[in-house]
Write a structure and sequence with these properties.
Length: about 180
């Protein structure tokens, strides 16, 4: 019983040394929200992503790299998906990948709270800051592998990346939310 209790404490304690995580594509969901005609929010997600996260609260080794398959964009409506993946929006034929890379992660009480880095979309790279909320670690209940997760948020202007079609009827401001889980390597 003491061993089990010690194991659970270790699983839930914040990281104190560099830890390397591989994102679980089955539990990582990049999504977006954008105003449509000023009356509603249109939501969508990307079904395929991959990435690696190194968290080092005591030093400069932190690194985040996430790649999203832009062609996996999904709003739940086939016709709208075709428009969004076409040349007026994500232009997936020419730009098949969306990428975020960061070497700057801020920590509070041993937990990551933000990541400053570069987002590449439609071939344009711009600085963004991701807010990291609800960072929590445990062990996956079937395999007992160390597992951490968080909700990640930011807001961008799509026009900063050259996605200008439909502004102002289709909003310029886009909220990005990523539900992320990763297994420690």
């Amino acid at each position: 019983m003491k061993k089990l209790f010690a194991c659970l404490l270790c699983a839930c304690a914040p990281a104190l040394a560099a830890e390397d995580f591989v994102l679980d594509p089955g539990h990582t969901f990049p999504s977006f929200e954008i105003r449509h005609h000023g009356v509603s929010l249109m939501r969508g997600k990307f079904n395929r992503s991959q990435g690696r996260v190194v968290l080092d609260p005591s030093g400069p080794a932190s690194h985040i790299e996430v790649r999203v398959d832009a062609s996996s964009g999904d709003t739940g409506h086939d016709g709208l998906n075709q428009k969004l993946l076409g040349s007026n929006f994500f232009n997936t034929a020419q730009f098949p990948e969306i990428r975020f890379v960061s070497n700057e992660v801020a920590f509070r009480d041993g937990k990551p709270v933000s990541a400053s880095g570069n987002l590449t979309l439609l071939g344009a790279t711009r600085p963004v800051i991701l807010e990291i909320r609800d960072y929590t670690c445990t062990r996956q209940f079937l395999t007992l592998r160390p597992l951490c997760g968080a909700d990640v948020h930011t807001t961008i202007r799509r026009s900063d990346f050259g996605m200008n079609y439909g502004i102002p009827l289709i909003g310029d401001e886009v909220k990005l939310v990523i539900e992320v889980e990763g297994f420690r390597e």
